[in-house]
Give the backbone structure.
Amino acid sequence: MPDINTITDLAPGKYPITLLRKVLKDRIVVFVLKFAVLFAILYWVNFGIIALRVPGGYYNEWVAQHLGYADVLRTGLVRASSWVVEMCGFDNRYDATSVHIPGVIKVRVAYVCMGFGLVAFCWAFVIAYPQPLKRKLFYIVAGTLTIITLNIIRIAGLTMIFATKAFSVDHDGHHTAFNIVVYIFLFLLVVRMMNEGTKNRADAGPTDA
């Protein structure tokens, strides 16, 4: 005669719930789920805010007046890029959205060129990865500053390349190259975080389950 507990465990609806509980106990699965949710939230909230600030369509005056971080970042990118170009011996000017060498070339920094998707990826990964809060803050700041620095180098480099016509640069090509460089950096960041986490757990010694 079959055991009543066996019958209960195999009852309709019981197995999926049990399986879900087991899956959610897997740290890797939990990390992937956290990362995916955080990335989606960061990416689409940022995208929505920018969309609400652009005149026309879904424009919202309150958002445009109070959530101008994208314009602040773009101004910083443009000014820093202009300074780099100046240090390299190129007389140039800049405005709110672009760096230009008078009578030669103008490089405009659009919202899609500012690396928000890459920053969202970095933040989501760091927040989702299990580590102390101080380390999370460190890697968020380090990752964000590195992405911004690489973007400044890209914008300044493009301005000088276009000005000197040293070689042709495809529009999609430099975006792809920038993304590849940043993802290589993020990979190295991940390796460092994982190595650091492994070392900290080893130093802490075994713990009771």
Remarks:
- Helices lie at 4-9, 14-24, 27-53, 61-66, 69-87, 116-128, 133-164, 171-204.
- The longest strand covers residues 98-101.
